[in-house]
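Chapter review: from sequence to fold.
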Amino acid sequence: MEILMYTPTKLIFGSGKLNELHKQVMPGKKALLLISCGKSTITNGSLDRVKKELELANVEYVIFNKIQANPLKNTVMEAAAFSKENNCDFIVALGGGSVLDASKAIAFMATNPGDLWDYVVGGTGKAQPMKNTPLPIVTIATTSGTGSEVDPWGVISNLETNEKIGFGMDALFPKLAIVDPELMKSIPPKYTAYQGFDALFHCTEACISKFVNPMSEMMCLTAIKNIAEYLPKAVKDGNDLEAREHVAFASTMAGLIMVLTSTTAQHSMEHAMSAFHHNLPHGAGLIMISKAFNEFFVEKHACDGQFIKMARAMGIKDADKAEDFITALVNLQKACGVDNLKMSDYGITPDEFMKLAVNARETMGGLFLANPCELNDKDCAGIFEKSYK
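The C-alpha cell string follows.
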C-alpha cells in the first residue's frame, strides 16, 4: 500500500460561504480577478459579490474577462502580461473549470519569462524548469466539474499546434478555495450535465487506474455515488440546492482525487477531440466516448472488480459483473438527457480517428500508463469509431 497526498489548499465549502471571503487572509494586496468571456458571473451577481468581498478585505483588483471555454495559450499570455502591467501580486479566479485551469498557467507566466509552451511537458512543449515562483491563487468555483479549485493542474489549448495539454506542479496549488453551491444554481441543464459527467469520469477513470489506492478508491466511490444520485436532480431543477451541494461535493472530491492519482486515456482522447474541434465542450466529448472506452476494458476483463464496485455505487445494488457498470452509465446519461450526443455535430469525421488517437498519445501519453491494460493507437481509433454518431 502506497499513498502520497499533498493538499495545501485551504478549502471552504458550503452554501453562502462566498460571504466569508473577506474574512480570510489574502495572499497579496492587488488581485488579477479572472472571469470568463461570457456573462454568467455578471448576470448571476457573483462578480459583484466577489468585488464587494475584496473591497471589504482592502484588496485592490483589476479584471481580466477573456477566458474561453477551452482556454487558449495566447489568452494565458495576454492575461499574464496584463497582470505584470498592473503589478498584481495574486490571482482570484472566479468561474468554472476553464477559468480555474487558466489561472494556474497565468499565475506561472506572470512571473516566468518566455512562452507557456517553453514549460509544457508533452507534445511540442519544451519542458523547461520553472525559474520563478508563480503568483498565489485564490479559486472561487461557479461550476461542478473539474475540481480544479483544489488541484495544481490546468489544461490549455494551443491552436497553432492543435494541442491540448495539462500543465501544473505543486507550486500552483491554490492557497484558498471557496466552493459555494449557491453560485451554481443558474447553470443551464445541458452544462450542468456536461460538468457533472466530467467530475464523474475523473472518478471512474481513477477507480480503474493502475494507480488506484485505498484512499483514492474510497473517495472515488463516494463521489460516484453522489453524482449518480444527485446529478439528474440538478439537471432537472437547477434551484435544487441540496442536489447542487451534493454534486459540488463530488466534484471537489474528484479534484482531490487528482492529487492522489490520475485519470486514464479517456481524458487524453477527449483532449485530442477538442484540440482539433475547439467548440466541443470537454464534458460532452467525454460522454460521447465513455461507453465504448469502458466497454474496451470490460471486454478485456481488465478490472472486473472495480467496475462492479462502481456499478453498486451508481445504484445497481446487486451488481455482480463488469457489464453492470455500462448499464448504470447509460442509464445515468439517459436520466440527464445526454445519451444521444453526436461527434458529427461538432465537425468530427471518421477519417480523423487515427489522427486523434496519435494526438492523444503524443500530447498526454502519460495518462495511457494509468490504463488497466494496454490501449494502442488502433484500439483508440476503434473506440472513436464505435462512439461515432
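Two observations follow directly from the output. The chain has a mean pLDDT of 97. The longest helix spans residues 214-236.
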